[in-house]
Amino acid sequence: MPVESLFPRLEPLLPHVQKPIQYVGGELNSTVKDWDEASVRWVLMYPDAYEVGLPNQGVQILYEILNELPGTLAERTYAVWPDLEALMREHGVPQFTVDAHRPVRAFDVLGVSFATELGYTNLLTALDLAGIPLDSADRGEDDPFVIAGGHAMFNPEPIADFIDAAVLGDGEQIAIAITEVIREWKQEGRPGGRDELLLRLAESGGVYVPRFYDVEYHPDGRIKRVAPNRPRVPWRVHKHTVMNLDEWPYPKKPLVPLAETVHERYSVEIFRGCTRGCRFCQAGMITRPVRERSIDTIGRMVEIGLKESGFNEVGLLSLSSADHSEIADIAKGLADRYEGTNTSLSLPSTRVDAFNITLANEFSRNGRRSGLTFAPEGGSERMRKVINKMVTEEDLIRTVTTAYSQGWRQVKLYFMCGLPTETDEDVLCIADLAKKVIKAGREATGSRDIRCTVSIGAFVPKPHTPFQWAAQCDHETVDRRLRMLRDALRSDKEYGRAIGYRYHDGKPSIIEGLLSRGDRRVGKVIRAVWEAGGRFDGWSEHFSFDRWAECAAKALADEPVDLDWYTTRERDQHEVLPWDHLDAGLDREWLWRDWQDALSGGEVEDCRWTPCYDCGVCPTMGTEIQIGPSGRKLLPLIVK
Amino acid sequence: MVQRLRVRYAKRGRLRFASHRDISRAVERAVRRAGIPVAYSAGFTPHPKISYAGAAPTGVASEAEYLEIGVTRRCDPKRVRDDLDASLPTGLDVLDVVEARVGNLADRLEASEWEVRLPGADPAAAREAAERFLAADRVEVERLTKKGPRRFDARGAVQTLTVAEGTGEIAGQEVARPCAILRMVVRHLVPAVRPDDVLTGLRLVAGFAPPSPPEVTRLAQGPLDAVTGGPADPLDPDRDHRGGEPGTAGQRVGGDL
Fold this sequence. Notes:
The complex is a heterodimer of chains A (640) and B (257).
Chain A: H1 7-10, E1 40-46, H2 50-53, H3 57-68, E2 72-78, H4 82-91, E3 109-113, H5 120-130, E4 145-149, E5 165-166, H6 172-187, H7 193-203, E6 213-217, E7 223-228, E8 237-238, E9 266-269, E10 271-272, H8 282-286, E11 291-292, H9 295-309, E12 313-317, H10 327-337, E13 344-346, H11 357-364, E14 372-377, H12 381-386, H13 393-405, E15 410-417, H14 424-445, E16 451-458, H15 475-490, E17 499-503, H16 507-517, H17 522-531, H18 545-555, H19 563-567, E18 582-583, H20 588-599, H21 617-621
Parallel strand pairs in A: 1-2, 1-3, 3-4, 4-5, 8-18, 9-12, 12-13, 14-15, 15-16, 16-17
Antiparallel strand pairs in A: 6-7, 10-11
Helix pairs in contact in A: 5-17, 10-11, 13-14, 14-15, 17-18
Chain B: E1 3-11, H1 20-33, E2 50-53, E3 61-71, H2 77-87, E4 92-99, H3 105-108, E5 111-119, H4 123-135, E6 140-145, E7 148-153, E8 158-166, E9 179-187, H5 195-206, E10 215-222
Parallel strand pairs in B: 3-10
Antiparallel strand pairs in B: 1-3, 1-4, 2-3, 5-9, 5-10, 6-7, 8-9
């Protein structure tokens, strides 16, 4: 039975909302497939505003892969702003896809990508607007399966009540596998209902179905054990790793929106994974091992992607892009190819120690020489040893000075506040570092017309990292140190005016901490916050710390735990962590050793260039490091 | 820059919700996709030489929007029309491309002809309101601008204003409601008088208030033609009348009943 478009009912609401274009779809390269010809139908959601969600690589990749699959269709939906939400409720218009404006509830699967935990309340809004029961347990035959993915799903426990399943790791292959399991189950006439389908997924060991695991607690609130409650459901669920990125060259046809979005460029992932070993970095821990995309595939993807989109900027993405074994050839090859076409290249996530000026010059050859950003993360040498960000002050000053003398006038430096073992002095070292940077820059250029911006936010300990046991720094301390740093920068007569200062206060990070390391009991808090009007928690103008704190106090009143217990409490070695049954491949004992090394300032090298240090990922997951150099050069364009 | 191309394009259907900035980004990308050798400005941040004249507001459809592209290599206007149209999303449709020969295009856009569909509105009431509006010398309306509320006369700019009856068919609605359709020719003055200002005027002079949001379409814009009382084709002075095709801007492309 065809599903009717909701657009005629949505259209009269659009003149009354901000930026209506974000709700109309019709993006270049978007796909609308015939409803009846597909036997498995996905709706993919990025649970934030369209302007943030549309450029998301994960959603674009799965959208394209699923739509290429015979008998399968995929559409997209995003969080609607409160102005439209109110009108949709008033006029009874349900959550819709932007592609064909079909009702979300009509699909088989709602796949939600959580890059950050702050999208949880937006999931509840979408479910509610769609007419899908918030609780997985209350859903029936006609409701879609709600399956979550993305980095935050390495601990999905806080939203265990609201999702039917979660997937860890790379989505390309597992999305297809899930599709085929659903197709088979539907063709068989849906034997055993929802439970049976979820059981089939759970038994594979590659899909986490929270309802098939029971959590027991100690009287003091700690978890006693997490155990499967069905015979063939495995004790641990493993993550997925795509081993050959050249076989998955997506997105091929990037979505090009009419509306303005946060990234207006063709992005290509040049590798996945990172083994630099920064201890705060969840992405670096959970995406191991390093798998490079080859220079040829990158060259082809950029060529086709630019032609299909008309974008004039290429972003070479990864966790530390200058670390690609052939980055110099890639940069030079692309700069040569697009010489004189006003096409610019950008290299987000550049490490100070991997940066070199030849590379930077290639990147700015055809475009703007805007600014350079580095992330020393810690202000003092001691702090950087604790977090294993092995960048010396000398390195940093030399790199930045070179940049200034090559014509860059603005350098941004990223730091974190509230790192384990941090003292006031460590944070004040950031001010010294910034002043030294300006001083060296002025000496090198003979000009006072150079600037640097210090950007700083609070550290949040994340699951599957050596800091998963750490106490999160309370927001009072973080805010005090941020003010102290501000005063130290502003009061300096010689350098103060050349140094900009941007900071994020500590309160939102405490809530992020609650959602990152929370367990199933935190679900009650999320629901209470949503019921109290919580929406768009990643946006400072919508986020309310007080609402979260009050709702946490109320929802957890009958539990032996509270907001502080989840955030500022240090865990001991043997405490069962809410995500221990979810396997990112990392050896728990190695993580603990690395945590102890952090406390004593011990450093770890990158296993791409030094011997394996047994983090556990490769043997557990059956994977291996895949890096070049291939020795090849970028091929000329196929069609000129 | 060796040539300037003047482009008439339409903004249709759901694409009417695109803002002017949205459209200019889409055009820049389409120009690159189509391989049109657009010229760039010199300087620190080079910009493609594409300029826009008299863009319709967000939410308003149009059959007559104009832009000008500077190119570094001579192009065949017909080819540019096809290539650019193929590269733009459906709903942003290229209708006409001519080579700029004389004068300034923006200066020729003296007036617009608008169609305003008012689903559910009583045509008789609309007709009466229009008569009262036309009979007035001045109709002061207020509009919220970026600089705060602003009062101005909405009557003086209105050359003609007629009311027709339509079926008001909207896709997806089972019963076709009656529909009043306003047609108006409005001169481009400062401050600009928009169709919604005229609707405000109708409310002020006759208490006329349509029950649902108006659907506004610009049908044409150009120099005011003394004979027809409406806008003429602004690209006509650029056309090669000895051998070129007749313009399409004189014909009504959409909205005619």
